[in-house]
């Protein structure tokens, strides 16, 4: 299982703070595609991604037991 943590508008869109997904050997990009398809989440191309509390890119390969956080951009003034 991969645990996906959602923040800001992603949490609002999904209605969940976290989602567990069966998967192993996927890239972050593949996980984003699955999240967009299954949970109709938009804007994943602009989020920062952390895997096990370390920033990661779309090519990072995920393993069973990983925790992935999708962190949308923040605006402020």
From TrEMBL:
Complex formation: Heterotetramer of 2 MoaD subunits and 2 MoaE subunits. Forms a stable heterotetrameric complex of 2 MoaD and 2 MoeB during adenylation of MoaD by MoeB. During catalysis MoaD shuttles between the two heterotetrameric complexes.
Gene Ontology cellular-component annotations: molybdopterin adenylyltransferase complex
CDD domains in the record: Ubl_MoaD
Entry-linked InterPro entries: Beta-grasp_dom_sf, MOCS2A, Mopterin_synth/thiamin_S_b, ThiS/MoaD-like
One of the GO biological process terms: Mo-molybdopterin cofactor biosynthetic process
Keyword Nucleotide-binding in record: yes
Source superkingdom: Bacteria
Molecular function, one GO term: nucleotide binding
Keywords noted in UniProt: Molybdenum cofactor biosynthesis, Nucleotide-binding
Pathway: Cofactor biosynthesis; molybdopterin biosynthesis
Protein source organism: Peribacillus muralis
Annotated function: Involved in sulfur transfer in the conversion of molybdopterin precursor Z to molybdopterin.
Family: Belongs to the MoaD family.
The keyword Coiled coil is annotated on this UniProt entry: no
Gene3D superfamilies referenced in this protein's UniProt entry, alphabetically: 3.10.20.30
Name used for this protein in its record: Molybdopterin synthase sulfur carrier subunit
